[in-house]
Amino acid sequence: MTNLDTSPAQEVCPAAHEGQGPCVQLWPEREVPLGGVRAMNVLRTLPQRGLPTVGAWCFLDSFGPDRVAMSVLPHPHCGLQTVTWPLEGAVRHRDSVGSDVVVRPGELNIMTAGHGISHSEFSVLPATTGTGSSPVVEELPVSRGLQLWVALPDEHRHRAPSFEQVRDLPVAVGEGFTATVMVGEFAGHRSPATMFSPIVGVDITGTGSLDLPLRPDFEHAVLVLDGHLVIDGQDIEAGPLAYLGAGRTSLAVEAKPDTRFMLLGGEPFGEDLLMWWNFVGRTHEEVEKAREEWEAEGLLDDAAAAASRFGFVQGHGPDAGPEAGRIPAPPLPGVKLRPRTRG
Ligand code: MN
């Protein structure tokens, strides 16, 4: 998905030179000003001022549940991987490396932008809806999901773009919990998803007293999706991101029945990042150049666009009706960048 913010700020993300020790910090979610997807409820928990990354996780948006159709026209990315994790509803993904797939709950889309890619995302609608100028809202299926980004380390951020879908993710079953391993390794189960830094992402449903194995060299955070957790005596409900620090070999969790939550973690990311709109770079000049190139590519014919940095997504030509077009880059903010301190 695109960053829906119509006037995105530049996010200066200083390197995490070492992980903080075990802690429980609640970082509040914030509503994203709505752009292209009207009426869709989007809550952002990363990046935060003071918590730009958790491992290489650098962006976390939760959307829905809402009966709205996602219709995100082609837009660019660079320097990151997008991780799409639908909770309800199916999404059709098309990109400039030729992918055209539907992703459903339990399945994972990973798009490695590297030097540059573009893609579109549209809700899969029943045949009876979405026709005419005003679709019947009550008939739209429920859309709910997570859009995450992973910053690529410097040695990989200029690589050629690629896409993969993983449909058979490993499931770890422990005392009181079931855990789908989205990326990385958890409780002896490893996701086949291709990642470029030491990282973990797990979707856990549990009840009662859970004892989750963690890597002490990773920092971790938890996002409750449904239900209620208690960690180190602190109540955690849906909404904020609970940052847990590093240095834990296990995590004792009290979960109300059928509480569902995401566990995200990784080696503290040791590089400064500059994030703006859909780009992750290192300098203002890089981000400015990516923006200029995306804008310039919009003026090319299809063949020239296909050979350009961000490429060309099939199916959005002038005759594509409501799916015609591309998302122009917002203006760059004129403010001088100011570094942030972490924690
Ligand atoms: Mn996107």
Structure in words:
The two termini are 28 Å apart. The protein has helices at residues 284-297, 302-306, and strands at 11-13, 25-27, 30-31, 42-46, 57-66, 71-77, 80-88, 91-95, 100-103, 108-112, 117-123, 143-151, 162-166, 171-174, 177-183, 185-186, 189-190, 199-213, 219-226, 228-231, 234-237, 241-246, 250-266, 273-276, 279-281. It is mainly beta and 343 residues long. The longest helix has 14 residues, at 284-297. The strands form five sheets. Strands 2, 14, 15, 18, 19, 20, 21, 22 and 23 form a nine-stranded antiparallel sheet that branches. The chain has a seven-stranded antiparallel sheet with strand order 3-4-5-12-7-10-13, with no helix packed on it. A four-stranded antiparallel sheet has the order 6-11-8-9, with no helix packed on it. The structure holds manganese (II) ion (MN). The site of manganese (II) ion has 7 residues, from strand 6.
